[in-house]
Design a protein that fits this description.
single chain; about 180 residues; mainly alpha; two-stranded antiparallel sheet; globular
Length: about 180
């Protein structure tokens, strides 16, 4: 049973990382009219979304029927994750992948109220609606298919991390 839970969390990580990438690429496409990969990595994923989704699921999955609780706690977890990742990237690699300094009620440009509300809403949708359905669908896949898909994603992700550590993605529109 524990392997099933680990498999689910890894799958959640990649699904949310890819959805986060698509979300940000779509937003930037509408704002800038061009494809911009805003992530530290080169692949089609933003791990901060995956980490946030897994943390929110692990801490709040048992409250999937308590929408208001999940809303507020998701906002805290998502914002805390973004603050930690933003601070880490800034202090360790001197990279700023986002800056909310122009938004009201921000903290050093790492986080702000509007984005926290977005995390709260997204976390509620994730925990109360998407994750339970995705988990049921995932558990219907044959074990060999699950293992094969996760192996492919993990290996690609490891190579992408290695490449980004050697040559950080700092292309047009990536950093502030």
């Amino acid at each position: 049973m524990i392997l099933k839970q680990i498999s689910t969390c890894i799958m959640f990580f990649f699904v949310a990382s890819i959805l986060g990438f698509l979300w940000e690429v779509g937003l930037l496409w509408m704002q800038e009219g061009a494809f911009l990969n805003r992530g530290f990595l080169y692949g089609p994923w933003l791990p901060v979304y995956g980490v946030g989704a897994v943390l929110i699921y692990l801490f709040l999955g048992k409250y999937e029927h308590s929408y208001i609780r999940v809303f507020f706690l998701s906002g805290l977890i998502g914002t805390g994750t973004e603050l930690a990742v933003g601070w880490f990237l800034d202090k360790v690699w001197r990279l700023r992948y986002w800056d909310y300094s122009g938004y009201p009620m921000n903290f050093n440009g790492y986080i702000c109220l509007w984005i926290a509300l977005g995390f709260a809403a997204a976390g509620m949708v994730w925990v109360c609606f998407a994750a339970p359905r995705l988990k049921k669908l995932w558990w219907k896949f044959p074990h060999l298919l699950q293992r094969s898909l996760l192996t492919i994603f993990i290996v690609a992700f490891i190579f992408d991390c290695a490449a980004a550590l050697i040559f950080p993605n700092m292309g047009k529109g990536v950093t502030y």
